[in-house]
Specification:
The chain has 405 residues and is of the alpha+beta class. The chain has helices at residues 11-21, 42-45, 57-66, 88-95, 110-114, 189-199, 297-301, 334-340, 350-358, 395-404, and strands spanning 71-80, 120-129, 133-139, 144-150, 153-158, 163-168, 204-214, 217-226, 233-241, 247-254, 262-265, 268-270, 288-291, 318-320, 327-331, 361-365, 368-374, 379-383, 387-391. Strand 10 and strand 11 form a beta hairpin. The chain starts with 10 loop residues before the first helix and ends with a helix.
């Protein structure tokens, strides 16, 4: 169906609407253990273009902001293509001990699973009942991993290893917050949409791009595009439930074309109240239970690889530019600069240095030389002196920022 209109964002009034849209209609905090870059396979979600009353982009943003959906359950099919190999095996080296649940870690720790969902295809079951009860389950062929937020408790259980992880929410610690500690990453279509609208401004074009049917429900397609050149983001398309205003699907396509980098949404969804038993969990006899508060502080935050010891001393982050072409600049510690820039270290064998250099593209400019590491969405330039420039921007934009710096 052809687009209804081509209305861009309009000044302060539109910005106010975006800020209003940032509040979570379904604050599925537990679902935040899934990476921001997750989503639904479109072929499983879409089935025709329903005939719906015309709406403007402003009206559709208002509809998202006014959505009061706090109860739902459904199935999510995740496919993410950042142009990286699967991170499942590597995640353990950064997550605090590995999939086997070492002495000071647990394979059920949500941080262990977060990077696994950042690539490939996964099936999830999600449920929410207001701010205090949410559940997410990652389904594999022979196992299941679940994260359950119920009141003041956050439980995670990995059936493959028969390990459980337990933490308490910030609210239980006396803070007026509803999200469990360590679960801030957005993952539902609603949360992803809020993050995009929050970051939007005069640098963004927002239009209504026809209709779709997602998980058997009629929806409008809200299309969000950068106005700036130099961004690797082509467009973000959000399917918004025509009745409730709840985002059902979130798709991010790269400026370079091809398959979506992120494609997030539901294959089935029910807006009824889930059964209270959905959020009940008690470890079975023999299950190894790890308490978050019993872990050393460094394991709660994630272990730092030996090569990057001293990274806690990173210089303060600086942001260059604005909107879609924002670039983060920071300084690596000396211990990590040589490795990250692809230059290696003085005691590194020549073959190892060549292999390290082959992982990225060598670039030169007024700043000197460095290496650009690329995905389909994010590019990172590490200069020989250990300065890092990163953003959802082109390589040329990074080199330009480094030259200006």
């Amino acid at each position: 169906m052809a687009p209804y209109e081509t209305e861009d964002s309009q000044g302060a009034g539109q910005s106010a609407l975006r800020r209003k849209a940032v509040r979570y209609a379904v604050p599925v905090a537990v679902v935040g253990v899934a990476a921001a870059a997750i989503g639904l396979v479109p072929a499983l979600a879409d089935s025709g273009d329903p005939d719906l009353p015309k709406v403007t982009a402003q009206e559709l943003i208002e509809k998202i902001a006014a959505s009061d959906t706090e109860q739902l359950s459904g199935t999510v099919k995740i496919h993410t293509d950042l142009g990286l190999p699967s991170l499942g095996g590597a995640a353990s080296s950064f997550g605090g001990g590995g999939g086997g649940g070492g002495k000071d870690s647990s394979s059920a720790d949500p941080k262990e699973k977060l990077t696994e969902l950042a690539s490939g295809t996964h099936t999830l079951r999600v449920a929410a009942d207001g701010q205090d009860r949410q559940k997410l389950s990652v389904l594999d062929d022979a196992s299941e991993y679940s994260v359950i937020h119920n009141g003041d408790d956050l439980w995670a259980y990995d059936s493959a290893s028969d390990e459980a992880y337990h933490a308490t929410t910030d609210r239980a610690a006396g803070k007026d917050q509803h999200k469990p500690r360590g679960s801030e990453a957005p993952a539902t279509p609603k949360e992803l949409t809020d993050e995009i609208l929050k970051a939007s401004g005069d640098t963004t074009s927002i239009t209504v791009d026809g209709t779709a049917q997602v998980a058997g429900r009629d929806a409008y397609r809200l299309q969000i595009k950068p106005k700036q050149s130099g961004s690797t983001v082509g467009a973000v398309t959000v399917a918004v439930d025509a009745k409730t205003g709840t985002p059902l699907k979130f798709t991010l396509t790269p400026a370079s074309g091809g398959a979506a980098v992120v494609d997030a949404g539901f294959t089935s969804v029910d807006f009824g109240k889930p059964a209270a038993s959905t959020f009940d969990y008690k470890p079975a006899k023999g299950t190894k239970v790890t308490e978050a508060d019993d872990l050393p502080a460094q394991d709660r935050q994630g272990k730092v690889p030996e090569e990057f010891k001293g990274a806690e001393g990173l210089d303060g982050l600086k942001v260059i530019g604005e909107g879609w072409t924002s670039i983060a600049e920071l300084k690596l510690p000396k211990e990590a600069a040589g490795l990250a820039s692809g230059a290696g270290t003085a005691d590194m064998p020549g073959d190892a240095q060549k292999f390290l250099s082959s992982l990225g593209d060598r670039v030169k400019g007024d700043f000197g030389s460095g290496t650009v590491y690329s995905t389909r969405l994010v590019n990172v330039l590490v200069t020989q002196d250990g300065t890092v420039y990163a953003g959802a921007v082109t390589k040329d934009a990074l080199v330009k920022a480094a030259d200006a710096g």
